[in-house]
Design goal:
By secondary structure, the chain is of the alpha/beta class. It has two domains: 66-119; 132-344, Rossmann fold. It has helices spanning 11-19, 23-28, 49-118, 121-140, 142-145, 179-186, 191-194, 208-213, 228-240, 278-294, 309-314, 325-334; strands spanning 198-202, 220-225, 251-255, 268-273, 299-304, 318-321, 339-344. A seven-stranded mixed beta sheet has the order 3-2-1-4-5-7-6. Helix 1 (11-19) packs across helix 3 (49-118) and helix 6 runs antiparallel to helix 12 (325-334). The longest helix has 70 residues, at 49-118. It binds S-adenosylmethionine. S-adenosylmethionine binds next to helix 8 and strand 2.
Amino acid sequence: MSVVPPSANKPEAVAEKNAQSSPSVQESGNAGFYPPATEVTSEQEGQGAPANAAEFDAARSQVAERIAGLADKTADLTKQATTSAVEAGKVGLAKAAKISRESVLPELSRTSAKMRERTRPDRLRKDYRDFLLWLHANILDSATERLFFVPTKGSVPLDGLSVRGTNRDSGHAYKPSPALVFKWALAAVAEEDIGRMSFIDYGAGKGRVMLLASQYPFTQVGGIEFAEELHDNATMNIAQFPRSRMKCRNVDCVLDDVVNVAPVDGEAVHYFFNPFEPAIFAEVLKGIVASYHARPRRLYVILIDMDAGELMHKTGIFQEMKLPSAERMQAQALSPYKISVFRSLA
Ligand SMILES: C[S@@+](CC[C@H](N)C(=O)[O-])C[C@H]1O[C@@H](n2cnc3c(N)ncnc32)[C@H](O)[C@@H]1O
């Protein structure tokens, strides 16, 4: 590349300009990088003038060439610097793209997969339910739990327990009803009915629900439990429970398989906290319906954490009850389990 001023290589043009004694050259005494224009006297004219003009031209050419050389060198250096900067930039970009491909993108997709998983509606529901279970077990049930001689909290698998009957495999492990869930469910039973009714807990475990029911004025409270160890705990808890709290002191737990125990004759609340498989529930319900047909009367069936609505409607004698609005709202917000209450038509 050459940056020589267009006129620098044309001595004639400059000579012509100098010969015309340009005012600017005259005034400044130096036209930029051109040698100063020397005044030519009349004597000099015709003697040394031609030799001086040639020297000027030569000097001008030299200066112009030097400047052009410097400009070319500068341009080359700039070009080299630009090329290596571009190359360095390309290497940097390639490195950044590699890091992004190998680390940043996989991490981003792992994080977004985690976020998607954690915010899935069923996952959020499960997390909230786990929180509610913890809340009931560790906070809300604490006051009730202090009343029992044998602690009723926590779960107990049926393996290793001595079980009556042949339905061990259809039985569900022991775990207690949260006290508030029991209270919300029982709110659907008319207060005036309670004083005439028996309360039966199918799969009574360590007796927590029986003793919660004993704090209402039922005529009797019964339970059926097929695991000996759990039944012993229930018996101990009944014996030790503060009498001052009991509005019904006629409380008894039977050690047997539910399929072997006939339903009570009178009006009753039948309570099931998901104690066994649907086949056992269907058998027990059949007995209750037969007893109703033998003597139509007011019966309630409370189902906690069970999906037996269809079976209940098929009986033709039960209709589903709504919880009173206060309990319904509390249960909707705070119950870890589904609560369904049915009442017989009579
Ligand atoms: C989920 S626990 C409920 C305990 C208690 N009803 C409550 O709500 O706190 C279920 C209980 O049902 C008992 N169970 C399961 N199958 C049974 C059966 N066929 N006959 C009697 N009890 C049974 C289990 O041993 C267990 O104690």
